[in-house]
């Protein structure tokens, strides 16, 4: 039974609902806190040079991320290796702050031999996971900076009959590390029918080679029909056929971003011309948070689980080794012998050498005495054999051998 408590005088509760508590404002509290803190998003763009990666990024976020970029000459591009460059820009829209990080991969796919050219990209993603894991496992976890890659836009060349071997190997190497969104670049070089055939071919090969690209979440049953139709249109647009342009042209009395050709104008933000609007809607308006959630809950958790398993195996191995060491009786460490002896050690060694030399000299003198007694004993035996024994001589013969044998034994012991 709930007892009613008296409220202070002057307090006025809600007039419509007397049982109102106030936790319904929690979403507003979370919203205010999140807006105050701001948001982070890291986007990687990959693909060979000349497919419009930089132009598309500038078109997506209405900013110039590559104003200081220098185009390489043909000779420089021959020796160029895959690099990782990072551009950070702070964007604010209607009071909401976004810290956008663009990770570019210049030199990817431009060499004659592209064997494992995707390895620097995979290593970079793993390094960001490792850094976040270290920060998360540290003592101060208040201001952890999240540099994990949340999405990778992979640009596919419009020239060809589908995916190239390099495209397949790249996506298979990274699909367990990052959310891959395939992009059909330079869609204005293809007719509408060619675009549809190209998309179908790419989707078929992605499924055939077991490549797991980013999967759109299923809509909830309580979502409105417009959102469900929009989500279905986004799923059917994979891979997104896009056109990028930072040039403003005149089209039917309107100034739009697009490309001017002798036969007409291609508008970047016209859904009838390309999928740029759908890509921007998916990437920014509807699925940015889901991309971050999948990165945290799937890709990063897989990496974290592997790290913990590896650390556990190392601890178990070390524990077993220590157990075997204790059982073998070599638990105490053997003192190490210094490479250069000190003065006390040299003095002790010199004294031991002198003692050994003295013992050796004593042994030599004892050996000489032993040989002398042996010669005397032999001479006595010869003399005894030559003389006729008398009672007095028999007494001497009984005494002398005992003395000689005692002296001989003493020399032998020495």
UniProtKB/TrEMBL annotation:
<dbReference type="InterPro" id="IPR016491">
    <property type="entry name" value="Septin"/>
</dbReference>
<keyword id="KW-0547">Nucleotide-binding</keyword>
<dbReference type="InterPro" id="IPR027417">
    <property type="entry name" value="P-loop_NTPase"/>
</dbReference>
<keyword id="KW-0963">Cytoplasm</keyword>
<dbReference type="GO" id="GO:0051301">
    <property type="term" value="P:cell division"/>
</dbReference>
<dbReference type="GO" id="GO:0005737">
    <property type="term" value="C:cytoplasm"/>
</dbReference>
<keyword id="KW-0131">Cell cycle</keyword>
<feature type="domain" description="Septin-type G">
    <location>
        <begin position="37"/>
        <end position="310"/>
    </location>
</feature>
<keyword id="KW-0132">Cell division</keyword>
<dbReference type="InterPro" id="IPR030379">
    <property type="entry name" value="G_SEPTIN_dom"/>
</dbReference>
<comment type="similarity">
    <text>Belongs to the TRAFAC class TrmE-Era-EngA-EngB-Septin-like GTPase superfamily. Septin GTPase family.</text>
</comment>
<dbReference type="Pfam" id="PF00735">
    <property type="entry name" value="Septin"/>
</dbReference>
<dbReference type="GO" id="GO:0005525">
    <property type="term" value="F:GTP binding"/>
</dbReference>
<keyword id="KW-0342">GTP-binding</keyword>
<protein>
    <recommendedName>
        <fullName>Septin-type G domain-containing protein</fullName>
    </recommendedName>
</protein>
